[in-house]
Write a structure and sequence with these properties.
It is built from ten helices and 14 strands. With 419 residues, it is an alpha/beta fold. It has two domains: 198 residues, Rossmann fold (3-Layer(aba) Sandwich), CATH 3.40.50; 160 residues, Beta Barrel (Hypothetical Protein Pfu-838710-001), CATH 2.40.320. Strands 10-9-8-7-11-12-13-6-14 form a nine-stranded antiparallel β-sheet. It has a five-stranded parallel β-sheet with strand order 2-3-1-4-5, with helices on both faces. A hairpin with a 2-residue loop joins β11 and β12. The longest helix has 28 residues. The chain starts with 7 loop residues before the first strand and ends in a 42-residue tail after the last helix. It holds the Pfam family AAA_28. GO terms for molecular function: GTP binding; phosphatidic acid binding; phosphatidylinositol binding. It comes from Cuerna arida. This is NadR/Ttd14 AAA domain-containing protein.
Length: 419
């Protein structure tokens, strides 16, 4: 019998007041326990401390800073206790964190956060990107489901709707930049919202849930016309340097790649395997790597592909999480000047179109278009001369958003010469 490698998956549930975290944590726990996983639930550190009689209004500015610093230290230690238990567990293990390290940054100024990082030898890439596998933000009912917003069932909650919206945005903004950040909004009823949350975790893990968690959330991709507007026009964002390398695989029906992603000299590393469609969905299995593992796996690089270099800008706009990929040289001429905007959404075309960033010039939606697949974009050979051009992971024939502008596409892309 084949021995499967044990999985430890660390997910943060965060969000504004009355977003469904408590219910979501319970439902996520039950779902994975029914799959045979061991589930640990890390309690919210702030609730533990605040229930001991601490009131922010009674603290001086410096006391408030020290409280946040000690809260974060306490949180990290509590989490580490559960993380170590996960390592020693013999079963697949899901660790659900009720908020995570970056949530603390939502409650202090940027200068104080940087001061705290420096004083403790921390950095945002480690605390945000490398510490947790996935972040799920459950949008507050105060934003889109106001009739259901209530503070009655939470001893430590007293926020007005207006304040709850502000806290919700700040909590989401704190995690902008994490490579696997899902925003679960209130565009559906609450039961569907919870199912979407569970489905987002299962999707990242490559777990087939059949039709138990049916949602219509999918990846949407748009071609952007440059030049980009000035940075001051963007909402708060995080920029990353990203490097992709495709690896050799034993079968052409599977793709494997390495991703190196970093800020200010701090890096995270991911190995991704894309498998053929199952139940109509492409399955991706992602594994976090150490730097040493990354270097070793680079030896399997597929020389028929260019290394892809990008600047990736992550931001929130209209409760939607976006990634803007700006391709950089050296690259194939087909990638020069290429800018692609990506998001995951369950919204219909009309609702999503209203959420698209108005400060960007969108040319067309290219979801499912093999000419904008990174695998094909990175091929060294011309598409009309190669046998490696791939359509297997594309073919999204759902109706796309029609962009109303007079811009011409990035370039005329001939794909008829592929396989």
């Amino acid at each position: 019998m084949e021995n499967k490698e044990k999985r430890i998956y660390k997910v943060v549930l965060t969000g504004g007041p009355c977003g469904g975290k408590t219910t979501g944590q319970s439902r996520l726990c039950t779902f994975f326990e029914n799959l045979g996983w061991k589930v640990f639930r890390v309690p919210e550190t702030a609730t533990v401390l605040l229930s001991g009689g601490i009131k922010f209004s009674d603290l001086s500015e410096e006391e408030g800073y020290k409280f946040q610093e000690n809260l974060l230290k306490t949180m990290l230690q509590i989490e580490n206790t559960f993380f170590e238990l996960g390592e020693s567990c013999s079963r697949d293990c899901l660790i659900i964190c009720d908020r995570g390290a970056m949530d603390a940054s939502a409650f202090i100024s940027r200068d104080k956060w940087e001061r705290m990082m420096s004083a403790n030898g921390w950095n945002s890439v480690e605390l945000r990107d490398n510490r947790y596998n996935q972040i799920v933000h459950l949008v507050s009912a105060a934003n889109g489901a106001e009739d259901f917003y209530s503070t009655e069932d939470h001893a430590c909650r007293s926020e007005t709707v207006v304040l709850a919206r502000e806290l919700d945005y700040n909590a989401a903004a704190a995690w902008v930049g994490h490579p696997y950040f899902d925003v679960i909004d209130n565009s559906t009823d609450f039961e569907t919202k919870i199912c979407r949350m569970i489905a987002s975790v299962c999707q990242k893990l490559g777990i087939d849930t059949g039709d138990r968690l049916t949602t219509n959330s999918r990846k949407r991709k748009f071609l952007v016309r440059g030049p980009l507007p000035d940075d001051s026009i963007f909402p708060p964002f995080q920029d990353f340097d990203v490097v992709h390398n495709y690896l050799q695989t034993s079968t052409p029906s599977m793709q494997a790649r390495l991703r190196k992603r970093g800020q200010k000299g701090h890096w995270s590393y991911i190995h991704t395997i894309r498998k053929p469609k199952m139940r109509g969905q492409v399955v991706e299995v992602k594994t976090q790597l150490t730097h040493r593992d990354y270097i070793n796996m680079l030896a399997q690089r597929d020389d028929s592909h260019f290394t892809i270099f990008k600047r990736r800008r992550c931001f929130l706009d209209n409760n939607q999480y976006f990634q803007l990929d700006i391709y950089r040289e050296p690259c194939h001429p087909r990638c020069i000047g290429l800018i692609l905007l990506e998001t995951y959404s369950a919204l219909d075309n009309g609702a999503l179109e209203k959420c698209l960033p108005k400060f960007l010039t969108l040319v067309e939606e290219v979801t499912g278009n093999p000419a904008y697949s990174m695998f094909n974009l990175s091929l060294r050979e011309e598409w009309n001369k190669t046998t490696k051009f791939c359509r297997a992971f594309q073919g999204d024939d759902k109706e796309k958003i029609k962009i109303n502008n007079n811009e011409s596409p990035h370039e005329e892309r001939e794909v008829n010469g592929g396989v």
